[in-house]
Design goal:
Aspartate Aminotransferase, domain 2, Aspartate Aminotransferase, domain 1, seven-stranded mixed sheet, 13-stranded mixed sheet, pyridoxal phosphate binding, AON_synthase_class-II, about 800 residues, transferase, 28 helices, alpha+beta
Length: about 800
Amino acid sequence: MAKIKHNNFLDTVDEVVTNATNAGIIHLHAEGRELNGRRITINGKPSYHFGTTGYLGLEQDKRLKLAAINAIEKYGTQFPLSKTYISHPLYAPLEEKIFQMYQHPILITKNSTLGHLAVIPTAVRAGDAVILDHQVHWSVQSATEVLKSKGVTVRMIRHSNMDMLEHYIKDLRNKANKIWYMADGVYSMYGDFAPLHDLMELSKKYAQLHLYIDDVHGMSWKGKNGSGYVMSVLKDLPQNILLFGTLSKTFGASGAILVCPDKKLHKKIKNFGGPLTFSAQLEPASVAAATASADIHLSPEIYDLQSDLERKINYFNHLLELSDLPLVHKNASPVFYIGTGLPATGYNFVSKMMNAGFFVNLGLFPAVPVKNTGVRITISRHNELKDIQALVDSMSYYFPLAMEETHTDLTRIYKSFGIQETEKNNTIGTQVEELNLESTETIQQINKTEWDTCFSGKGIFDWDGLNFLEKVFTSNNLKEHNWGFHYITIKDKNGKIVLAASLTSALLKNDMLSDANTSRVIEEMREEDPYYMTDVVLSLGSVFSEGAHLFLDDDHPLHIRSMRLFLKKLDEIKTKMGAKLIILRDFEKSNTLNTFFHEQGFISIDMPDSCEIANFNWRNEEHYLSTLSKRSRKHFNKDIKAFENYFQTRIVISPTPEEIDKFYTLFEEVWSNNLGINIFKFPKKLFSKMVKSPKWDFLTLYLKAESPNISDKIVGVMFITRSGKTFIPAFVGMDYGYNEKFNIYRQLLYQTIKTAGTLKFEKIKFGFSASFEKKKLGATLIPKIAYVQADDNFSLEALDWLQKD
């Protein structure tokens, strides 16, 4: 498969969020003349509020409100001056109280996002390295971006994977001064905790390890003086930790806190920490409210508030244990995540809950992988026990209905999140009596005429082409050369094909979808581990083919049901083959399945344009040139025609073993020079099988010898197959030493066109890549997209950091 480029990230997010907005479950507006924390009114309907991050309810405390009101009366709505010059009168008392909470030097920032932007570029110096937890908050990752310009190495590990963390520490310890691991104390989506004891053991083992922990979701409801989850575990902070807390969320006011035990580093950050120097300071009302909250935190009352919240968290956990609701991560934090898997199920379930009078948050891409959509529920002191009981009763009633209406079940949801099922899980079947699905792992068990009715002339996936690929990519020594072949047909009760598809499961490089610079970095790592950052992928078609691998009769009344049945079968195959990713590829951008795929947990990515010459009617060179633009004719004469006499072109049908060796060498040159399409090298067996197949020819380019006593030199070869009236130059080999001087690649493209015309083919499928060169020779560019569903976003995001090296 040619290189697939991820489209603009914001466009992808925009499409996902737009779908959720259209479903009426995000971008909402609270209504009413007042808020009390327990109830919230949306679209005229009062609802119980289970979406707040003010876990202790202090934002509604009268003492904080009065303090803010008095501060505005005395000091105004803001103090418009950088804190570097002068702070307003309320700042110093607040800083003293926060210091009492932590007993370490602190800095107060406008918010945590600006705080990270202030601290990270100051604390992490040139020569250091950073390792990010995959689920560390976006604000931390965003602030880390600026380190790349300093030459700081940044890597990412799978969520809380201590083995992977130690692997990177070992790899970086001789290359970096300090190694910073950045994580959350309490993670904001699933509510799970950082493995702090394991991290402390690693920091004892590796003196270079420093920890940067964002604990804003662990603040106030946990720890001595409400100092947070991290402090509740560690009790005191060692010198190698930077800790972020918050004055907003559970603290009830506004702002964020850096706790820095290293006094020297604390001074550097205070003296020049980006937004600390150039941004406005917290408003008097926010500082006054935070001071009132700090007084509560420093009093015994904080422990009563914590106990009250803990009682409600435990009650919710107890009720969930008695239900069939798929809780993704059981913990003692106030954050809970009920998995729905499919976005369609999430939209449906949240909509039902809102109609029933319960406000809950949808967790969706990019905060979670698309297939890990779910409902994020938070418990606060505002919630009464009877509210929590009513919430669980409603969820237990509406969740099965949402599953049934969106054609999913608990088995599928649990599998999406890697959760082991229990006996109480109920499965809702999705069998469709009007349809019959058949699947096989060899094309030999499929009727040739029936298959070719769907695929002849479309690419190297007609019956003969797939039969050829099976012979090549099975029974090989290397695992990357052994593919699983999967064929699916779905027929209606009259035996008419509604859907047909060919797929492969194969070991692929994660960076196959990345640019050449990223692949270059990873290939260096593969010198030690050839299978570093590789996974089994289940894909429509294969890395060897391009085109419409999915046949769907979209005029058939059961075509959407067929697609659901097809995707369910793909889940089964994916599990069986141990694949981490499903790629449904080569769809035209304007297709009717776009919304359907998104609701089924796929995101769209841009592919390179497909190149083809259709309605091909070659008569002679003059006629061909008349179809090109004036500019393209000029290019042809200068870069192609001017060199044609240097070459001889022959179609070699039965090459000698020596010629096969040469063809393979030329193919290897292209493969090694083309990291933009970074796949495993094809086995040499492929070329010997081509020789024996009547469907393959070798369009060979010979550089004419300057002396009659010297043989012509093979400098290029186009490997060509056919499907019906379609001519398919599948891939190329060439001598790079001659390409720049003689324009070998362009000459091969032209000679391919010329040969197709001579043989009276009606279409040439040039596939992906080099679209600019192909367009100049008359090819039409067809924009294509793929739909991708991954177990998680880790590979894509980890590659993104490598890409920036």
